[in-house]
Amino acid sequence: MDDAIAVRDLVVDRGGRRVLDGVTCRVPRGTVTGLLGPSGSGKTTFMRAVVGVQVVAGGTVTVLGQPAGTPALRQRVGYLTQAPSVYADLTVRENARYFAALYGRGRGEADRAIRDVGLAPAAGQLVATLSGGQRSRASLACALVGEPELVILDEPTVGQDPVLRADLWARFHAMAAAGTTLLVSSHVMDEAARCDRLLLIRQGRLIADDTPAAVRAAAGVDDLDEAFLRLIRAGEAATTSTDAAATREATA
Q: In what order do the strands lie in the sheet with 58-63?
């Protein structure tokens, strides 16, 4: 199979509001795919649906050839949430080794995961004493320690300095080159250029599913920020035109 994730006509309602509205897209295997969009656009809800922990109102989500949430996927999918998902009263090393044990991995894999996220100097520190950015990286180490086939990362670079951001993206691409598939969300458009493929989402609707180069070409600009804005305006214009035609037809 070429696709690690295949989503068709996904609809999610939360709190009486439609959060995702008919999203259809795909994530090829062995790529770094960016899920980009402003805060509140539905990125986290989309990721929860892929992991299989989100109730959906319609559509299908297939992950590694199986329905999202299938028990057999638990050992094959890693998930990093926005909130730190590690134990504050354990050290970074103790957290990584605990999660490694859950995956049947050893101390060597745990220590390597810590090094890969740049936390080796803080391996012996209690998570409670870490900065917000360090806690996020500790959570990332725990998400990667099982060497999953698919990694879902919800804004993993928030709070990281530019050097660490660059190091993390280099790590993501090295993982993809080795066959891992990564879906990485961000609301920072300058990270879009670091991705092999982009899913641009706004107000629960997918407005682009293509490579960064193709997104630029479709918008007719070189800057991805401007490309995103042009795609939004084109979508709004099309919606307005459709609504106006429907109104004329209803009143005819």
A: 17-28, 3-14, 58-63, 66-67
Here the tokens at position 12 are: 């999610």
Q: How far apart are alpha carbons 244 and 248 in whole angstroms? A: 6
DSSP type of residue 126: B
Condensed to tens digits (0 to 9), the pLDDT of residues 55-66 reads: 999 999 999 999
Dump the DSSP string for 95-115: HHHHHHHHTT--HHHHHHHHH
Number of H helices, E strands in the chain: 7, 10
**Dihedrals phi, psi of 183, to nearest 5 degrees:** -115, 115
Q: How far apart (Å, rounded) are the C-alpha atoms in residues 152 and 139?
A: 12
Q: What is the pLDDT of residue 9?
A: 97
Encode pLDDT of 182-204 as tens digits: 999 987 777 888 999 999 999 99
Q: Tell which residue, 42, 76, 67, 29, has the closest CA to residue 183.
A: 29
